[in-house]
Amino acid sequence: MGKVCIHPTLSDLWNYTGLLFCSRMTIKASLVQKIGNTIKEVVRNKGSTWWYTPHMAAASRAITERIPLVDILLEVRDARIPLSSTCELIKHHSPSSRRIIILNKTDLAHHIQLKEWLKYFEQQKCLVFGVNSHNKDNIKELLNFLRARVRELPKIGHGDQTITLMLVGIPNVGKSALANSLHQIGRISAAEKGRLKHAIVSPHPGETKNISGLKIASHPSIYVLDTPGVFPAEILDAEVCSNLALTGAIKDCLVGEVELAEYFLSIFNSCDEYKKWVKLSLSGADDVSELERRQKRQYLTDHTQDFTVNKVRRTLFETVSSFNGNLQDEEIMLQLIKAEFAVLGDAFNLPSDSDDYVRKVAAKLLNLYRTGRLGHYTLDLAPSNHLESLRCNVLSCGA
């Protein structure tokens, strides 16, 4: 049999994502469909206060009107979902020569998959840069990269010229945090004084309401415009919906925290991230007295404290590693997820008879996942991996 050669475009990857999902991720199929159908039902309800509101429609128009006026577009995507977080709004409005793809939140993505995605975009002749907006050294590197791109603009040459860059993207990919970091580092490097202006940053999607400008460099003056996050009017792919919801781009109330936590655990149980915590299990309990905790300002109700995070990690490690069963079977996977919920309440120091016990466990678990405390995950596999899996499937089917 001859070799199978496939050369995809970026748009083709939606189909490859679906094929890979069916072939390798059937254990998550029902959860993905459940979350996807819930979101798509909200999308179909044009009067929803949660999806493509009049505010988002107005923001989309305002961004579209400004695109011809700015020098460079910075499309910010979530490094965990480089495909699912594509900004559809600018797809047909910006030549690739004026667009740079910024993969933000690299500290939360799987490092091997991140390299694969950067390699893929470079092969597609796209300008791309991976960044952690909370890492000063990383922001300095990005700022130098942007200055170099500005110098390549054809009309550069006048000392009093002002260059504008515009951040665009879906909600909660970190545009405002990135704008603030660029502004702060740029202001320091330019030795500029005066009151420091900030864009509003929130962990919740949809908080940025207006387009605001922040200066990030001098000689020439470079300003970055922070814009509200925008979605297309419709999203039809269930896995894309699920990935957006899990990473926090869509408000949790649309789907429900319990369903999202179950989706995360189905991913967590299928990979090897938990194996890194074997030493926590071997070292035993790290319990200290209440007095010692108070002296260290550690409180049982704060699930972000290191001692609680380690307890959660140890609990998950011991539960998964001691579980016997074929996790490719959906019912068995659900049994493991239920077992994890049962023991995580104690790890989070929640009394089992507390009101809304399951939802509280889910909310705390999602927070630890989204802040990188439970490992690094890339939900959209890089195209090379999609194609290799597809090729194997084709060969195994005797094509």
Give the termini distance in whole angstroms: 8 Å
List low-confidence stretches: 1-25, 386-399
Give the strand order of the largest sheet, numbering strands 1, 2, ... along the chain. 3-2-1-4-6-5
**What characterizes the major β-sheet?**
6 strands, mixed
- What is the CA-based Rg, rounded? 23 Å
Gross morphology is: globular
Count of DSSP-assigned helices: 14
Mean pLDDT: 81
Note the beta-strand portion: 5-15%
Give helix and strand order, one letter per element, not per position. Answer: HHHEEHEHEHEEHHHHHHHH
Number of strands: 6
Describe this structure in words.
The chain has 399 residues and is of the alpha/beta class. It has helices at residues 13-24, 29-44, 54-66, 111-123, 136-151, 175-189, 238-246, 257-268, 278-283, 290-295, 306-321, 330-347, 357-370, 383-396, and strands at residues 72-78, 99-104, 127-131, 162-168, 212-217, 221-226. The chain has a six-stranded mixed sheet with strand order 3-2-1-4-6-5, sandwiched between helices. Strand 5 and strand 6 (221-226) form a beta hairpin. The longest helix is centred in the C-terminal third of the chain and has 18 residues, at 330-347. The chain is globular, with a radius of gyration of 23 Å. It starts with 12 loop residues before the first helix and ends with a helix. Mean pLDDT is 81; it is low at 1-25 and 386-399.
